[in-house]
Amino acid sequence: MGTRGQDLIGWFCSYTPVELIRALGLIPRRLLPPPGKTPRADTYFTGNLCPYVKAILENALVGEFPALAGVVFVASCNSMIHLSNIWRSLKLSRGVWVLDVPRRGDSVAVHYWARRLKDLGGELSAFFNRPLEEGALWRALEEESPGCRLERPAGGHEPSRPRLLLVGSVLPDVLRDMVEEAGMSVAYEDACNAGRLVENVNLTRTEEFAGSDPYLSLARRYLYKPPCPRMVADRDRRRAYLREVVKTHRVQGAVYHAMKFCDLAMVDFALVKDELEGMGIPVLKLEGDYTCGNRGQWATRLEALREML
After folding, report:
1. 272 pLDDT exceeds 70?
2. Closest CA relative to residue 11, chosen from 41, 38, 36, 32
3. In 3D, which of 86, 120, 116 has the Cα closest to residue 101?
4. All domains of the chain in start order, with CATH
5. Ranges assigned E (strand) in 161-282
6. What pTM was computed for the model?
């Protein structure tokens, strides 16, 4: 099937159930805007709002994204909710759906989200006049492995270089390049365009597909994946995940990339810093505005981290 506009469904958040979209014969397309200024989007938002969200709107307004039949938003933060409202108001795509994801991953949350996923499936099915059969969803669950959506290829590691963990929401490609230019290597990326998107879920195949409800299996797949900063009720699991990453990838230092004006990042940074420094891992915080305009400052601070390690 070709990527025709009437089949394309845009998405942004790593909690978007792309298997549900594929089960309807539609094509999910992640919309990742390139870094840059946002003069048009600035007229729709206040100044102190997420620059990544502004970049999404900017690229939509100038026609940089492909023609879309619809977009599935996740209510991951206030900025994304504002974006979904503006997107619908400006009619930037025919269909707009907003998915509310729980902020924890326990049994109650799984069952709640399974119901919401089923509701979303029904809405998409009605909008496109296509049947959503459970068999098709089971096949999509079988076929859509987390690893096939890798946005950022894993890099190689030179034994003589300090091994870094990069943490953030959407990590800029230039940051990895600057880490390597500073004489270090990227051991792992905990981000929504890297590890949180593609890491294998902590479920065995039997556990994930136990029972007869594909929506429960889909809910477990996403709520049991590595948690992002918005999962405020999963702090213990996030700490355990960070410890496992450090152990598995032999991390020696960390860089936390915080998007400017992101409240979730500020809260998460405190957790990451506390957990990693408790393990003897130094943590460097770099703030970005999604323009990569502060490369000089980043380079200086990365060199200082290299000397520390």
Report:
1. yes
2. 32
3. 116
4. 5-149 (3.40.50.11890), 163-308 (3.40.50.11900)
5. 163-168, 185-190, 253-259
6. 0.88
